[in-house]
Each structure stands twice: as structure tokens, then as C-alpha cells.
Amino acid sequence: MKKVDVVIIGGGISGLMAAYRLIEEKPGLKITLLEKGHDITRRLCPIIEGKVPTCINCPTCGIMEGLAGAGAYSDGKYIISTEYGGWLTDFLPQSTVIKYIEKADAILVRHGATTDRYQPSDELKTLCLKHDLHMQQAQVKHLGTDANYKTMMDLIQSLRDKIEIITDADVTDADGNEKIVTYTHKKEVHTIHGDALIFAVGRAGSRFFSQWCSKNKIPLINNQVDIGVRVELPYAVWKHFSEVIYEPKIWFRSHKYGDITRMFCFNERGHVVMENTNDIITVNGHSFKEEDKKTNNSNFALLSTIKFTTPFNDPIDYARHVAHLGNLISGGSVLVQRLGDLLQGRRTDEKRLKANTVQPTLKAVAGDLSLCMPKRQLDNIVETLFAL
Fold it and tell me: pTM here?
């Protein structure tokens, strides 16, 4: 059995950055990084290539899995702030979190990322407050999907001769006591021992990690779930925000339920795209720097957050079931609906969709979201749309 100093499970940005920083601090470390998906040079999506109109459930999703992770095809936003973006400040002082964010940014800049930053705007924050909307502030960098991909390529290339990278390696178990990782590669089962194991499995591996924690009696404290939609509209509607801060990060507390619903992942003049996570098809947004790839629409996610209480403790499967219902109703795709039809309790059909003033950038199935989304979350989303 092979023995190394560190085994990193997952080749997304977390795994890559962990390897990068470890090698920086201790160049002699023996590190093996195991990635379930393909090498970044082999990550292909037939939808993006124009070969098929909808997801065909590739055995390995070229968008969600592979070296550089789901972020390889994201729109490349980098947030320098502690106001949002996770729960690190629950464990570290804000100053320490910012220090590490800046360190990560310096690494990305070293590999081609832009140095330009959008600055916070108190004027826009005040405008939001006048309408009972709350805008979180941050310095924001926007690389664009195209430039972000090049940065990831360069970062990975700098690691290839310093660590061992094994792609198409599906980790099936990790023994935390014996420090042994079991994985399949080219239809053969392998084991590897690491003095330290790092889980960096990302969104595609969240279910695996949750089950692993349960198996090893490790309690999980995050029992909330975000259910939402991706909203697409003419880019001019949000132009006065995006030109100043790029991403409006706005949240609203619904009057009906008191739940938080928030804007997430804004893409100016971008595309809505499908992605496949463990056979569940959802949507995301991409935005390019190159002018010829821009559209006349901007898009953003609108997510309603629900925090569950005992005895329920499986928010990941809850979200999967909601998304699966949408896939079921749409015949293995995703649904698109006009806001006007949603408000009138009417299913959108192809005729009304073609006559709509805003044409979607994604070929999706016209339908009725109320048939697959829980009422509470859908009510929250509609109320927030009116507030916005």
C-alpha cells in the first residue's frame, strides 16, 4: 500500500489551494490528490458544445465534477468580505478570515486573475433599506467564466510536478483511525495511507461526506436548506447596481413566514446553464468577459432558507427530493415559467413563452413551478420578487 504525508479527497478549489499552501510551506511533502471527475483538459459538456439540447446524464458531469471543481465553469466571482460566504467567522476572528482570503487572492492573481475590485456602495445600501431590503457589502472581483477557467488551468499546471494528482478516482471510504483511503480507479480498487487526510469534496461530494460523518458518528450542525429559482431579466434592470458593485447581495425577511430569502450568484449579461449533481439536474449561471459571449439578460438565484429542527436532520436529501420532482415533471430536464403565469396559477406553455418580452437563454421545459416547489418557499420567493 502506498504511503504519503497527505491525502486530499477532492480536486476543486479547496483541495487545490490546500495542496498549494502545503507545498509552499513544506516543499518536500508527499501529497496525493484524488479527484472523482476528469482532468480539467478532459471536462466536456455536450450541452455547452451544442451537441444536445438538454442534460443526458453523463456518467461524470463535466460541469460539476473534475479537476478545479464546479468553480472551473463558474463566472469566477471572488468575494473579499466576512459579511457573507460561509461560517468561517464562527470559528476564526474576522481579521484572520480576511487575512486568509487575501492570501488566496494573491495566489489566484499570481496565476492570472484580475486585480480589479468592485467596491462597496453605501448609497445603494441606503436605497435598499428604504424598501426593507438588506444589502450585504463586499469587495468583489469578477474574472468571468472564460478568464476563470484559464486561471484554474494555470494553477493546476503549477502543481502537476509537485504533487500526485489522480483523476477519475472515486473515493468509497476513508478510515479516519487508520488513515487509509479506499478508491476505485480504472475499475480497480486501491488503498492509500496518509499521515493526514483532508476532505475537500465540495457540493458534488456533500452527500458522501454527510453519510461518512453519520457512519463515523460525527455530528453535523448545519441543518438548513436553500430552495430557490434562477431569475432571468433584461440586464438594464440591474445595470445601476452591477456597474457599481457588480453583484447585488440582497436579502429580505418575508412578512408571511419571517423567513430569509436572498439573492445569490448574480451574472450580468450571462447565461443560465444546466448542471448535474449525482443525477439531479439543476441550473446555474455563467457570465463571460468576452463581449461576443454576452447576452441581453442578467440572471441571479433567489434562495429561500429554511432551518429545520429535530427530529429531521437530512437537509441535503430534502433538497434532492425537491429538485428531483422538478426533473420528473419536466421529463428529465428543468422547468421555466413566466412570472405572470406563476402569479395567476397558470402553467406556462411554449406559445406564451415565445411571446414573452424576456427570452430565456436556456432551452428548458415550459411548466408550472407550483407543482414541484414547496408552498412556503415559493411564497417567500414571490414576496421577495415584489420587494425587489
Answer: 0.88
